[in-house]
Specification:
By secondary structure, the chain is mainly beta. It contains two helices and 18 strands. It folds into two domains: 163 residues, Immunoglobulin-like, CATH 2.60.40.10; 111 residues, Immunoglobulins (Immunoglobulin-like), CATH 2.60.40. 10% of the residues lie in helices and 48% in strands.
C-alpha cells in the first residue's frame, strides 16, 4: 500500500461514518402481512435535512439461527417466496427534507396457489447524490488539489412482506432457558433461550421476562419487541440482557422464579403464545 493510499483510508473511514449518521429514513409499517386483503402501502419519511432518493425492489432472504438474515436466490425445503405474487409502485422515490412518500403494494394470487406462507422483503436502497458537494471534481476544485475523496454510505432498509394462503397455523415453545454471568456489556447478566416453532406460518410477537422473589415480589427484568421466527425455521436462539435494579447490578438473581412469556403484539390482540419458567435456588 502506497503512502498516499494509507493517508486516504482514515479520511474515507470518517466520511463513511458521516454518511451513516446522515441516514434518516423512517418506514411505517415495518411489516406487512397479506391475509385477506389485496392491497397495502408503506410510508417512507425523510427525517433528514437534504432530499434523499431511494430505489425500491424485492429481495429474498433466509433467517439464520440467531435471527440474522441471509440473501438467497433459491428457496430451500419449506421455503416459499412472495416476490412473484407482488406488484408495487413507484420503483424509485425522491423525498424532500421532512417529507414523505407512499409506496403501494398489490397482491395477485394465481389460481391454485398451494396453501402456506410466502415471504419476500421490500428493500429501500439509498441512491448516492453525485452533485454539489458530493462531486469529486467539486471537492478538488474547492480545495485546489488534484486528489479528492468522496464516499457516501448507501444506507437502506427493508421490511418483510408476507402472504398467507389457505389454512396456516403455528405453535411455539420456549426451551433451554439459561442465565449467564454479568459482563461489561450486560452488567445484569444475560438470559438465553430458544424459540421452537412448528407449523406452516411464522410467529411474531414480544418477549418478556419477569422475576418473582420467594417473598412474592415481582418485577420485569427483560423485554424484546417484534421478535419473529420465520418459515421454514424450526427454531431461533435469543439472548436478552437483564435489566436489574441499580442495587442489584453485578450480582446474581436471588432465589425465586424467572418466567418468560411470548405474546402476539398488542395490535394483533396480545394473545399468549408460549410461556416457560426457570426456578433459581
Amino acid at each position: 500500500m502506497c503512502a498516499s493510499t494509507r493517508f486516504l483510508w482514515p479520511i474515507a473511514l470518517l466520511l463513511w461514518q458521516a454518511g451513516v449518521a446522515r441516514a434518516d429514513l423512517m418506514l411505517f409499517p415495518t411489516r406487512i402481512v397479506f391475509d385477506k386483503q389485496r392491497a397495502a402501502q408503506v410510508e417512507l419519511m425523510n427525517q433528514g435535512k437534504t432530499p434523499e432518493t431511494y430505489r425500491i425492489h424485492l429481495v429474498n432472504r433466509r433467517m439464520g439461527p440467531d435471527g440474522e438474515f441471509i440473501a438467497i436466490d433459491t428457496p430451500g425445503p419449506g421455503e416459499q417466496f412472495a416476490d412473484e405474487l407482488l406488484r408495487y409502485s413507484p420503483r424509485q422515490v425522491t423525498i424532500p427534507p421532512g417529507g414523505s412518500q407512499i409506496v403501494r403494494i398489490l397482491l395477485r394470487k394465481p389460481d391454485g396457489l398451494p396453501d402456506g406462507e410466502y415471504r419476500s422483503h421490500l428493500q429501500f436502497d439509498r441512491v448516492a447524490d453525485a452533485s454539489g458537494a458530493s462531486s469529486v471534481e467539486d471537492v478538488a476544485r474547492q480545495d485546489g488539489k488534484d486528489v479528492g475523496v468522496v464516499i457516501q454510505a448507501l444506507v437502506g432498509a427493508s421490511i418483510p412482506v408476507i402472504v398467507r394462503q389457505g389454512d396456516t397455523q403455528a405453535t411455539l415453545r420456549l426451551a433451554d432457558l439459561g442465565l449467564h454471568p454479568a459482563t461489561a456489556a450486560a452488567p445484569g447478566g444475560v438470559l438465553s433461550l430458544q424459540l421452537q416453532r412448528d407449523g406452516n406460518r411464522s410467529v411474531y410477537g414480544d418477549l418478556q421476562a419477569t422475576f418473582t422473589t420467594q417473598a412474592g415480589v415481582s418485577f420485569d427484568v427483560a423485554k424484546a419487541g417484534g421478535v419473529a421466527v420465520y418459515v421454514p425455521n424450526a427454531a431461533r436462539r435469543v439472548q436478552l440482557p437483564l435489566q436489574l435494579p441499580a442495587t442489584a447490578q453485578g450480582r446474581a438473581l436471588p432465589a425465586g422464579v424467572l418466567k418468560v412469556s411470548f405474546r402476539e403484539r398488542p395490535e394483533a390482540g396480545g394473545k399468549l403464545l408460549a410461556e416457560a419458567s426457570l426456578v433459581l435456588p
